[in-house]
Amino acid sequence: MTITPHSKATKIDLFSLATPQMRTFHLTWIAFFLCFFGWFGIAPLMVYVREELSLTKAQIGNIIIASVAITIFMRLFIGWLCDKIGPRIAYTFLLTLGSIPVMSIGFADSYLSFLLLRLAIGAIGASFVITQYHTSVMFAPNIIGTANATTAGWGNLGGGVTQMVMPIIFGFFVAFGFTTGVSWRLAMIVPGIALFCMGIIYYFGTQDTPGGNFKDIKEAYPTFHGAKKNSLSNFLLVMKDVRVWFLFLAYGACFGIELTINNIAALYYVDQFKLEPATAGLIAGLFGLMNLFARTLGGAFGDRFGIKWGLRGRVVWLSMVLAGEGLCLILFSQMNTLILAISSMIIFSLFVQMSEGATFSVVPFINKKAIGAVSGIVGAGGNAGAVSAGFLFRGDLSYQNALLIIGLTVSVAAFFTLLIRFSHEEEKEVGDELDRILPPKQNEKEPSFVAAT
């Protein structure tokens, strides 16, 4: 096999597993999908946990924060680790070790023990960084936004499916005569086993880059940046880049809000509209189901804007959909009729996930020598946003007012993304690469956006 880290795929051959690029494509989204089952599997069952452990609203708020807080630090660490040892081994470790607290949460018998295990489970959320890193090194600039958005979106789909499936698994155990207190504990064993098995599959089914694993490439190409000792210096260089922090803010305003909705949606519909937990879970699941196509749309349009208007075009598209998200969330927060609440939530979800896809159509172009570090920091922004939003649900503020405040904040964040700039050299480098891989007609650009940089 010819070992080269640069032979990236220029198209997504969706129904093929013949190439390492497409095997990675499918295994990354499946792994991330299962991580959502472990990460948020307990969320639609919180009605029963709240009753059994006598949890207060403040304690539930703390649990929501705990579920996403540790992921901030884990995403930073995992991003650096991907640059250091490669995504294949990093994902294997995260999946197998992450399965332990998922299965162990069934042993929680108090608020404190449940809180600590919920905190530990949050580490699984770092899987997103590996998913984005792995597809970023496998696909070329003309399709990278679509590939990143689709793998992440189909993985995020697990957040919606979880809301629907976990109550069914819970009901399965209840049907066999177990109490509700025992059933929610047994239900969490299912995603834990799935995570462990997926860790083994990922190790044997993927490779780090199109040309092989980091170890092989390092031996054949000493200049390859992966697995080098300077990965820490690259990480520090990324931290000094202000564009990374604008993307950190943008991702906090979209993925952070998705995490928040995943945590509170079922409780919101139970408390606000007096629905049964199973019905509330089904409705809450509609929010995540939009990931089936919405995040892909965000990345695909990011690619189209990028081909036509350069890297600046990707940034403008991100700002547009983020502004749409903020306005739709404000609308959702004011709905007092069930059918209108559901309808506005679905439209809001469309913009949330398009914003996420748009964000990671920009990320791979910030620093190509430290994609893991950039992905880790920006990914951590999502969890930082979720933690910040979580504090609004701890006190006396109603859920509706909390959502209104978040919507206004997202609208403001949309304008900050327009401050992201790329140099003429960065634009030219990507343009030259597109010239090599695209037919002349498909690669026609509007010069105005490029000149604006």
TrEMBL record:
Keywords linked to the UniProt accession: Membrane, Nitrate assimilation, Transmembrane, Transmembrane helix
Membrane topology value: Multi-pass membrane protein
Basic and acidic residues: compositionally biased ranges: 433-447
The keyword Lipid biosynthesis appears for this protein: no
Transmembrane intervals: 27-48, 60-82, 89-108, 114-133, 154-178, 184-205, 244-269, 275-294, 338-363, 370-393, 399-420
SUPFAM superfamilies assigned to the protein according to its UniProt record, in alphabetical order: MFS general substrate transporter (SSF103473)
Taxonomic superkingdom: Bacteria
Residues in Major facilitator superfamily (MFS) profile domain copies: 24-425
Region (Disordered): 433-453
Pfam families referenced in this protein's UniProt entry, alphabetically: MFS_1
Location of the protein in the cell: Membrane
InterPro entries: MFS, MFS_dom, MFS_trans_sf, NO3_transporter
DNA-binding is among the record's keywords: no
The family this protein is said to belong to: Belongs to the major facilitator superfamily. Nitrate/nitrite porter (TC 2.A.1.8) family.
Protein name (record): MFS transporter
Organism: Leptospira kobayashii
